[in-house]
């Protein structure tokens, strides 16, 4: 993370011009004025004459995963990551992730180079019961960047890496509408070094709880009860970082209307999860390293179609996912770098169905995959070229050969343009293959999905500003969507044949003064598919245009205002009960109490304009929500 990405500090601007701008800002109370200033400033931002520049990798970076967490979970903490779309069901009891118009099956999390998967249903890709504070700044990975950095998902991922432990104690207490409260805490400590250069030991212990009652604007019966807890051990030296983390989660939530199920059923779901992660990384030189990572996680999931009639339909699932990888970057000389990785993954599902309504569980299944990746990279003058291959073998399918290529030209020390080509593959989840319920039906005949993506990326990065513009095209074969061919019939997992996705996206930020930072992102998407349908729930339901603007402003040293506003226009969908335009937003004011730097009070309004846009068709949107939180850092 660059220094310019940290939140504004409460200091007076030293530049007279900046003081003049800051003096004018108190009258700018509308987020639309912030947006206008942002669009005017970003194209003309320049660095100070003495600024140091470097050749930046084409990776979209964001603020820390959660510099001031609103909850104890990862999902909402990724809200500010550029081009990441969170698609929550209800009040966030279950949240999907989407990238570049992907279905929730095409994007997820990676941790220390390993993709985290849920073999039962990829709706659980964002479930990770580890504290946001233990991670360094998150990144959005797509295309070749994902190819190099992690085993990855079909379209892209939000990537997490362990951060060095800084001693301290953090406590957050919060509450708000409708009938919501949450508490989280983390205790961080390190052992003092006995000698310079020796390994420093560290420990994080964390936990959290959240409770929500139904939103009158959506389904009042839906609720959330969630507990998380765990620990993080770390050994750190100048060249080696070793991490071990354990996290557990117990979660129960009302699921009326979730996953496209008929809303007449008062559904409820219980989730129990445990995750173990271990990672050891050794820096072997400038821009080179060797790393070993392993992860295991288990989901126990119980879905009751109608809690008022619990014997009607019940599905019980237990799924296990284990993976290990050895990866690294070798640098034989200044001109060459070699990226490489070997990995193995194992999945297991055990599922049972009970009830008087006909249905089937997912059954008992085991499958595995192995992969190897090699990608040499050559630097010559202002050019950088890389070409490589991933070989992925499956226990129940033919191997896949996935090439990738990247060519980068450095126009100036702070300006690059890149062309990338990459391929990826995924197998259908067991829910897509085997599910059978009153609302949805899987298809045993689904084939594996493959995606080919090309992109042209322009990136400019200064000390106080950055901008990235990308044009991309993705072609998917055998993509799966949940499709309804007429009103009132079941959603069916359907092979769409071929889907061509064309789009462009922009992201930028500018630090106007030491007290004001502006960010923005915009995207446009178009899709063509072999198969038409009455309604699609994920692949065929996407934003054609999306704009998001945000501002972080400190008018006074002890007061900070944060605003973001999103406007999106989705494709037409007859199953969506609202219009196709969404105007979600958040306004938050933070106060430092009694001149203390360690105790903050935050007041927030989510969805202040009471937008009724349905993020997922048929799932009513939560209304306006007011909340407060008290956060201490000691």
Strand content: over 45%
Total E-strand runs: 34
Alpha-beta classification: mainly beta
The largest sheet, given as strand count, sense and whether it forms a barrel, is: 22 strands, antiparallel, barrel
Q: Segments where pLDDT lies below 50 for 5+ residues?
A: 1-67
Measured between the Cα atoms of the first and last residue, the distance is 23 Å
**What proportion of the residues is helical, as a percent range?**
under 10%
Question: What is the overall shape?
Answer: globular
DSSP summary: helix tally: 5
Query: What integer value in Å does the Rg equal?
Result: 24 Å
Mean model confidence by pLDDT: 87
Q: Could you characterize what this model shows?
A:
The chain is mostly beta strands and 634 residues long. Helices cover 6% and strands 54% of the residues. The protein contains five helices and 34 strands. The protein has helices spanning 16-24, 31-41, 74-77, 143-149, 430-434; strands spanning 60-61, 84-89, 94-99, 107-111, 114-115, 139-142, 156-160, 168-176, 180-190, 200-212, 224-236, 240-254, 268-285, 288-304, 314-333, 336-354, 364-380, 383-394, 397-412, 415-426, 440-441, 449-461, 465-477, 480-484, 491-495, 498-513, 516-529, 535-536, 543-556, 559-570, 581-582, 585-592, 599-606, 625-633. The strands form four sheets. It has a 22-stranded antiparallel barrel. β8 and β9 form a beta hairpin. The longest helix is centred in the first third of the chain and has 11 residues, at 31-41. The relative contact order is 0.14. Mean pLDDT is 87; it is low at 1-67.
């Amino acid at each position: 993370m660059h220094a310019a990405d940290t939140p504004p500090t409460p200091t007076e601007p030293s530049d007279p011009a900046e003081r003049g701008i800051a003096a004018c800002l108190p009258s700018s109370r509308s987020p639309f004025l912030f947006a206008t200033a942002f669009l005017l400033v970003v194209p003309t931002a320049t660095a100070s004459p003495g600024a140091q520049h470097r050749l930046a990798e084409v990776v979209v970076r964001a603020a820390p995963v959660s510099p001031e967490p609103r909850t104890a979970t990862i999902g909402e903490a990724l809200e500010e990551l550029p081009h990441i779309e969170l698609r929550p069901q209800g009040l966030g009891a279950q949240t999907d992730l989407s990238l570049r118009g992907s279905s929730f099956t095409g994007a997820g999390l990676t941790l220390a180079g390993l993709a985290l998967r849920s073999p039962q249903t990829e709706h659980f890709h964002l479930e990770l019961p580890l504290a946001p504070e233990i991670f360094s700044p998150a990144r959005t990975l797509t295309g070749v960047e994902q190819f190099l950095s992690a085993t990855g998902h079909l379209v892209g991922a939000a990537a997490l890496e362990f951060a060095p432990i800084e001693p301290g104690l953090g406590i957050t207490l919060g509450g708000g509408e409708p009938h919501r409260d949450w508490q989280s805490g983390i205790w961080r400590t390190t052992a003092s070094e006995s000698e310079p250069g020796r390994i420093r030991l560290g420990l994080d212990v964390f936990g959290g709880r959240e409770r929500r009652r139904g939103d009158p604007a959506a389904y009042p019966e839906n609720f959330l009860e969630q507990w998380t807890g765990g620990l993080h051990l770390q050994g750190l030296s100048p060249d080696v970082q070793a991490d071990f983390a354990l996290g557990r989660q117990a979660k129960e939530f009302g699921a009326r209307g979730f996953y496209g199920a008929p809303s007449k059923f008062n559904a409820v779901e219980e989730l129990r999860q445990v995750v173990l992660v271990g990672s050891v990384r050794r820096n072997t030189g400038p821009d080179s390293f060797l790393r070993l990572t392993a992860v295991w996680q288990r989901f126990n999931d119980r879905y009751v179609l109608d809690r008022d009639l619990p014997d009607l339909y019940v599905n019980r699932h237990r799924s296990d996912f284990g993976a290990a990888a050895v990866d690294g970057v070798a640098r034989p000389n200044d001109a060459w770098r070699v990226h490489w990785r070997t990995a193995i993954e194992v999945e297991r599902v055990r599922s049972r169905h009970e009830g008087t309504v006909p249905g089937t569980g997912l059954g008992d299944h085991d499958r595995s995959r192995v992969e190897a990746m090699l990608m040499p990279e050559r630097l010559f003058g202002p050019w950088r070229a890389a070409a490589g291959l991933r070989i992925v073998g499956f226990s129940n399918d033919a191997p896949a050969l996935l090439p990738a290529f990247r060519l980068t030209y450095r126009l100036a020390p702070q300006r690059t343009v890149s062309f990338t080509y990459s391929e990826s593959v995924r197998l259908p989840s067991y829910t897509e293959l085997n599910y059978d319920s009153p609302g949805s039906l899987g298809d045993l005949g689904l084939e594996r999905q493959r995606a080919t993506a090309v992109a042209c990326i322009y990136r400019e990065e200064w000390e106080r500003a950055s901008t990235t513009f990308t044009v991309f095209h993705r072609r998917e074969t055998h993509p799966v969507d949940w499709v309804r061919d007429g009103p009132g019939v079941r959603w069916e997992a359907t092979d769409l044949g071929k889907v061509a996705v064309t789009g462009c996206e922009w992201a930028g930020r500018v630090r106007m003064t030491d007290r004001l930072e502006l960010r923005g992102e915009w995207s446009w998407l178009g899709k063509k598919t072999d198969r038409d349908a009455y309604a699609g729930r994920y692949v065929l339901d996407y934003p054609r245009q999306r704009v998001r603007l945000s501002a972080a402003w400190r008018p006074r040293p002890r007061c900070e205002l944060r605003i973001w506003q999103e406007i999106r226009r989705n494709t037409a969908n007859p199953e969506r009960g609202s219009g196709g335009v969404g105007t979600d937003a958040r306004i938050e004011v933070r106060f430092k109490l009694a001149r203390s730097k360690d105790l903050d009070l935050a007041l927030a309004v989510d969805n202040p304009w009471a937008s009724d846009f349905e993020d997922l068709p048929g799932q009513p949107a939560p209304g306006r929500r007011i909340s407060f939180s008290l956060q201490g850092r000691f």
